[in-house]
Each structure stands twice: as C-alpha cells, then as structure tokens.
C-alpha cells in the first residue's frame, strides 16, 4: 500500500489496498499506526457492500449498534445508513447527519469509540463540485498548544458528557425527523464522566477530549467557571490551523480517529441533491498500543 499524507497536518490517502478482502497482519498494523499518526484516512476507489464494510471495521474492534438507530443495512444493525434520500412512498431511507455541529462520537458513553468508517455510494454535486464535506479538528495539536497554566488547571479534571444534549439540539433543526428519546433509550445513555485530557491508545500522546456536542460541565467547578473554561476550550480547538476538510468522491472509504479528532458534517446540500453513505462505528475495545507495536 502507499500512504500519502495531506498537507494540512491531519489526514492521509491510502492507495493500492483493496478493503473488500481481509487485512493481513502487517497491513492491519500499518493502518492502525497511520490512524494514530494522521487521524483521518481516505481509501479512494473502493466498492464494498455492507457485509464487507462490517468485516473491515470489525478488524479494529467491536462495532456499536446505536441506541437510536432507525436506519441500517438489512440484517446488519451495526451498519447505519446516512442519507437524505426518500423511497417511493416518500419515507426517508437513512439518517441525514449533516449539520450536527462539532462533536466526538461516543464521548457520551463510558465505552468510547476508536474510529468511524464511512463508505460513500452517492455524493451530492452542484456545478460539478462535491457537497457535504466532513470536517475534522486535530485534538493532538489542540492539546499541545494549550497554555501551561490551562493544562495545569485542568489536568485530572473530568467533564460531564450527555447524549441528550446533542439529540435535543438535532431535534429542533428544520426538517428533523428525530423523535424524543424514549425513557428506555435515555436509561441506556445516562450522562457520563470523561477526562478532559486523555492518553491516546495508539500514539501514547495526550489529547484534548472535550467537544461542544456533548460536554455539559466540568465536574467540581462553579457553573460560571465551568462555562468559561469550556468556552475557552471550544474556541481554542476551533482555530483554522487545526482544520482538515474532506471532499467526498463516490467510492471513498473514510476512517477517522474518534479520540484524536472532532468532526462535523457540512449541511450545504439540499433534499434534491442525493447522498448515500454506509457507516460503521468501531469501539475502543482492543489493546491498541500492543497491536501497533
């Protein structure tokens, strides 16, 4: 395989590797290391069905079945369908994930996610230009650039992350079809404590693990101080120098690190500009330091 890093400080493109076949041990180790180093990996020109995508993603850890997943591949609840398309009866065929705002998947869960793996089948176009970019921010670099006094102030602190914060924010978006969480769904995803700084399981380096999508408050601080520090962290990580934006092409498989990045899907396409993407989410269920060694 060939690994070609981007010039943004985040992301790389992987060539000459067919993801429809099982990974060899050396290939897996190389990709795991690349995920830690580059944060976002794009494999262009792939053609995977849902079972093949599931098999590839499962190589990196257990796959999550989303508590509120309404749309998935037949017989594969771990493969979510992201789409703005509708069937002949006018019903949605997938979850439209655009415009969710900046977040880190599964930070609302005690068991966090290692990575997302998305496979584009249809990409919206306008005037020949792809729409619906997925954007990323580098949380390795964001941590490294924090002032020493902020690192000292927040070392060992935890933030409370809440799934309902994000869900309720999405429900009020125009055109949303999301229903309120049921008591059963809410019980499965109560607020959780997450360290604001954590050691990345692949790189062994510290990352800023605090995102505006789910983080509610810093435990043990007065509300005014907590709000001020969270606002500072969110503004700090929003600097342009940490940004990488992926423009989709049909056939792309995009895999990104959910511990060392935050992400956002741009909502710049309309309902008549079709998008269809298969998605798997890999939980951080393996000893990645040992596997990458």
Automatic annotation (TrEMBL):
The enzyme's E.C. designation: 1.14.11.-
TauD/TfdA-like domain location: 10-280
UniProt key word Hydrolase: no
Highest taxon listed in the record's lineage: Bacteria
Pfam family, one: TauD
Group of enzyme by EC: oxidoreductase
Matching InterPro entries: AtsK-like, TauD-like_sf, TauD/TfdA-like
This protein's name: TauD/TfdA family dioxygenase
Organism: Sediminicoccus rosea
């Amino acid at each position: 395989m060939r690994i070609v890093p981007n010039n943004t400080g985040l992301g790389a493109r992987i060539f000459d590797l067919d993801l429809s076949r099982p990974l060899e041990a050396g290939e897996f180790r190389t990709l795991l290391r690349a995920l830690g180093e580059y944060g976002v990996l794009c494999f262009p020109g792939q053609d995977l069905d849902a079972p093949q995508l599931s098999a590839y993603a499962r190589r990196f850890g257990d796959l999550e079945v989303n508590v509120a997943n309404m749309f998935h591949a037949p017989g594969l609840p771990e493969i979510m369908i992201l789409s703005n398309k509708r069937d002949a009866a006018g019903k949605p065929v997938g979850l439209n994930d655009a415009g969710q705002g900046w977040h880190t998947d599964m930070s609302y869960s005690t068991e966090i996610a290692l990575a997302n793996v998305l496979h584009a089948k249809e990409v919206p176009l306008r005037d020949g230009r792809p729409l619906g970019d997925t954007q990323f921010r580098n949380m390795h670099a964001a941590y490294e650039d924090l002032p020493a006094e902020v690192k000292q102030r927040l070392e060992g602190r935890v933030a409370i992350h809440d799934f309902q914060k994000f869900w309720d924010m999405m429900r009020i978006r125009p055109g949303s079809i999301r229903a309120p969480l049921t008591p059963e769904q809410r019980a499965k995803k109560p607020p959780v404590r997450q360290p604001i700084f954590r050691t990345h399981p692949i790189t062994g380096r510290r990352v800023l693990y605090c995102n505006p999508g789910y983080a509610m408050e810093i435990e043990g601080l007065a509300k005014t101080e907590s709000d001020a520090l969270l606002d500072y962290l969110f503004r700090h990580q929003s600097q342009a120098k940490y940004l990488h934006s992926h423009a989709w092409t049909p056939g792309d498989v995009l895999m990104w690190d959910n511990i060392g990045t935050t992400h956002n899907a741009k909502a710049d396409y309309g309902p008549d500009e079709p998008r269809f993407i298969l998605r798997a989410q890999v939980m951080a269920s393996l000893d990645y330091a040992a596997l990458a060694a």
